[in-house]
Design goal:
Layout (H helix, E strand, L loop, with lengths): L13 E5 L2 E4 L4 E3 L15 H13 L10 H14 L12 H16 L3 E4 L9 H6 L3 H4 L11 E4 L13 H12 L1 H9 L1
Parallel strand pairs: 4-5
Antiparallel strand pairs: 1-2, 2-3
Length: 191
């Protein structure tokens, strides 16, 4: 069976990674600017990460959100404490597309609106609503049009980043603290 052509492929094959580098079979190092597809952008093969994942997988690799999971609650409690938003609810997703799809649906359910704003030149994922929000005609041209199609998007020229740091100092501080404590959070939840 042939693999589906999702992307144009570069003519390299990383076989291992360490820190910020990936290596081909012949040992050629490449500085990894990729940043991690989906939800893992913490570098490669860090001993604490490998240990934490190995310990968790040896106990239970995955299970549904339809049962209690104290690790999820511990993570929610820790994120609430660090961010200062402990009265919020945490939705855990396994990919950016899943997070975007659910955010679009939640916004639509909450407001009753059927249109959303999306950034130009951004990729939001491969789920139906995420594809609809993606500013790329090649991707959107493959989307079937049905009565259950996701909300439509309105294109506006908007910079991808705005300077909100001065107006939201607590949020900026929370993001810094989250970034600084990512390893300890992961380790304490996996312990």
């Amino acid at each position: 069976m042939k693999l589906f052509d999702v992307y144009s492929l570069y003519d390299i094959e990383p076989v291992r990674g360490k820190g910020n580098y990936v290596y081909t079979a012949d040992g050629t190092p490449y500085l990894d600017f990729y940043g991690g597809h989906a939800v893992i952008s913490i570098g490669h093969s860090h001993p604490r990460y490998v240990d934490a994942v190995s310990r968790q997988v040896s106990q239970l690799a995955f299970y549904s959100n339809s049962v209690k999971n104290t690790l999820q609650q511990r993570l929610a409690d820790l994120l609430g404490e660090i961010s200062g938003y402990d009265d919020y609810q945490l939705f855990l997703a396994n990919s950016g597309a899943e997070a975007n799809e659910n955010a679009i649906k939640l916004a639509s359910f909450a407001t009753g609106r059927l249109r959303i704003l999306a950034f130009d030149k951004a990729f939001h994922g491969r789920t139906s609503a995420a594809v609809a929000a993606t500013d790329n005609p090649r991707i959107q041209s493959t989307r079937p049009t049905t009565s259950s199609s996701p909300p439509s998007t309105t294109s506006r020229r908007q910079p991808a980043c705005s300077n909100h740091r001065n107006s939201q100092p607590s949020l900026s501080k929370a993001f810094r603290e989250l970034q600084e404590s990512a390893w300890s959070m992961m380790i304490s939840c996996a312990a």
